[in-house]
Every structure is written in C-alpha cells, then in structure tokens.
Amino acid sequence: MSQGLSLLRRTVxxxxxRSVAPLARKIDTENWYPRELVREMGKMGILVPNxxxxxxxxxxxxxxxxxxLEEIARYSGSASLIPEVQGTLVSHVxxxxxxxxxxxxxxxxxxxxxxxxxxxxxxxCCGSDAANIETTIExxxxxxxxxxxxxxxxxxxxxxxxxxxxxIGERSERHxxxxxxxxxxxxxxxxNPIEVMGFRGTGTAEVILDSCRAGDxxxxxxxxxxxxxxxxxxxxxxxxxxxxxxxxAEAAFEEAYSFLTQRTxxxxxxxxxxxxxFSLSDLYTLIELGRxxxxxxxxxxIEGYEDFPTAAAVTKLGVARISVExxxxxxxxxxxYGYSKDSNVERIYRDAKLLxxxxxxxxxxxxxxxxxxxxxGAKWLI
Length: 382
Fold this sequence. Notes:
This protein has helices at 3-20, 24-29, 35-44, 62-73, 77-97, 100-112, 225-262, 274-302, 308-333, 335-339, 345-352, 362-376; strands at 117-120, 136-140, 143-153, 161-167, 178-184, 189-193, 205-214, 219-221, 264-265, 268-269. A four-stranded mixed sheet has the order 1-4-5-8, with helices on one face. Strands 2-3-7-6 form a four-stranded antiparallel sheet, with no helix packed on it. The chain has a two-stranded antiparallel sheet with strand order 9-10. Helix content is 53%, strand content 15%. Strand 9 and strand 10 (268-269) form a beta hairpin. Helix 4 (62-73) crosses helix 7. The two termini are 20 Å apart. By secondary structure, it is α+β, with helices and mostly antiparallel strands.
C-alpha cells in the first residue's frame, strides 16, 4: 500500500480512536444519531470522502474511501455507515448525474455535515427487485409530483435531502422509466422510525412521500438513466460496505485475541492452547482474504474495468460471509463474556448481519455472478 494510503489510515484511525470510540456504546444502546460527530467527520473531509476537496470532501478514489470506512468501522459500524450512505450512495449520484446548480448547492452541505442525505430506493413491495418499485413521479403544473413509500432508509429520520427513485409512467416498463429525483424535507414527507437489531443510531426509517413537489433541476437522473444511477451507486456501495465489514471483523478479532491472551483455563493462558491458536489463524487468514478482495475491487473500479459490477458482487458476497463468520467465531471464543452486552463483539455481531442483506442480499450477488457466468462462461475477472 502506498505511503499516502498508509498516512490516511493512520490519520483516520487516530481520529476514530479519539472521537468515535467513546461514542460507540451510546450510539448503539440509545439508538442515538451522533450529529456532532457527523459534523466533525465533515471537518475532516471524510463524511463525503469521494468528492473533491473544493466541495468539502477529501477527493479520494474508491480505494481511499475503503480505507476510511474500514478504519471507522473498527470503532463503530454505525459511525462508518453514515459516510458510506452520505458519500458513496447519495453524494456519488448527485455529483455524477446532477446539474451544476444542484451539485454546488447540495454537495458542500452534505460534505460538511450541515445537511444529512438519504438514499431512498427500497419499498414495502420491493427490495431486491428494485426495477419493480411503485413510487410515482408525475408531471403536474410545470412541476414533478412524487408519491410513494420507501423502507429501510438509512438516515431517513434525520435527512434534509432525500434521493428518491421512482418511475415516470407505467410500472410495466420496469427499469426503463425509473428516475432519480432530489427532494428537500418538508411537510409532504413523513418519517417513521424502524427498530433494527444492528447499525443502530443511523436513523433507519419508513419514508412516506405525499405529493412532494420538485423542479426540473431536481430531476437528477431522468429515464432511462435513473436505474443506471441506482445500480452505479449500489455497485460502488457494495465495495464500500464490504470495507466496513472488514473493519467490523478486525475489531471483533482484536477483542477476542486480547480476551484469550488474558483468560486462563486449567492453569494456563487460553491463547497457549493449540486449538485456539489454529482457530485464530483461520480467522486472521479470512480477514486478510476479505481485505484483499475489497482493495482489488476498488482498484478495478478506478481502472474502469468493464466487469466491475461482477467484481463488486463477488466482493460483497465473499466479505459478507467472512465478516459474519469471523465475528460469530470471535464471539464464541469469548464464551459468556462475548455473548454479553459488556463486550463490543456482541454489538459487532448484530452489525455484521446487515452485510448479508444491505446493498443487495447474498442471493442478489449470486444472481449478478450467475449472469456473468451465463454470458461469459468460466472467464475469470482478472
């Protein structure tokens, strides 16, 4: 890894250990959204690390973003999920597809933490089948009117801006008439909290859109670009959340290693038992494998590799399995303490389970990969 990325890692780790770690338990137990921490990440340029410095970001490529999310997640998965959504989902789409006026108005606010953004794609009817969404965007009186209900919207409770995906026209057109539109919070938007087992404190919500009105420039990606914009964000997001998953696995491994070093059984430290040593070796290897997958996928994106969506799916599927297995085994090795809420690994385990669901379930990743195989046969990505 380059000296620049090593310096970035050290800088973010120092920040996270100082500013994130003391808040991790409060965020989880109280389901508390850390607004001041968000602003602090904004001042660091890591709240939206993928946009240019003149817009308030850090100007990082996907490899740099992955390092940022990995390091924050070592102290709090929830704190890491915030820039993952704010940056690689919401700001990524607005910066890439939005008009100059909207970009200049919105991105600096999202990057600084003065405004919060939400990525509103999933619906009660449709999670994995995003092309089947029901939200409508209709032209009325020179404006766009948006009606629908969104689910599982991270930061939805606190968002100032909602990047909403809906359709202009008939549902039978599926992905062909999907658009992305930017809505500002107002009386037409109602949000209801959704209690989730992990990544608490991130404002997960149901979002009800009751005839919200928006102008032409707020139509960020009209058909047929809207669905492409959603998939573009999700593909980048799959690598980003995988980096977050590696950070969770690292944190769980480190806590288990420390515990096993201090714990004694039958008159000797548990860490001296060969069976324990072998288990830790397996977990360590899995983490290194997962990290390599994340970094390689990020490099493929930077290179403009045509099969990046497949690489993203492979990475997401692999790291989801690795993260859940490593964290679960770390918890088991710590015994009753690992199972208790006095440990950090109990919280990390609840967070890690989202890796199998968010940004596309494991089955969705398999679908992407199987389509690649059907099209290109046993041709390797690299």
